[in-house]
Amino acid sequence: MPHADAPSDRPWTPVVLPNLPAPAGAYSPGVRTANMGSLLFVSGQTPRDQATGDIVEGDVEAQTRLTLANMERILIAGGATLANVVSITVYLADENDWGTFDRVYRSVFSAPYPARAVVGASLRGIRVEISAIAAL
Fold this sequence. Notes:
Layout: E1 12-15, E2 30-33, E3 39-45, H1 60-77, E4 85-92, H2 98-108, E5 115-120, E6 128-135
Parallel strand pairs: 4-5
Antiparallel strand pairs: 1-2, 2-3, 3-6, 4-6
Helix pairs in contact: 1-2
């Protein structure tokens, strides 16, 4: 759903989710292009409770499941599904969590898998953040 005050001269439209907390920063949860190959870019998602906006505590498995669910909500709001995802970037606070993350990821995505990069990052109190690009 386009944001009400989005400039009409941009080649993209923001994707917003009604009745959910606003993003913590100055960004759109997702951006859908119209004339650049119909792509949907999903901003970095975190293990944020969609009702309260609070970060949900837990191990990397629980945080990954919630983060992927949050990403899927934005994909759906933008007219896509997990099957449309062509690229994923994953940020892990602890690179040693890669195996657990990968196991959860494989339970959500199936082969052939999207392109993917996983990097270690300082995430200020969370264990995982995930962004994605989907082809529509």
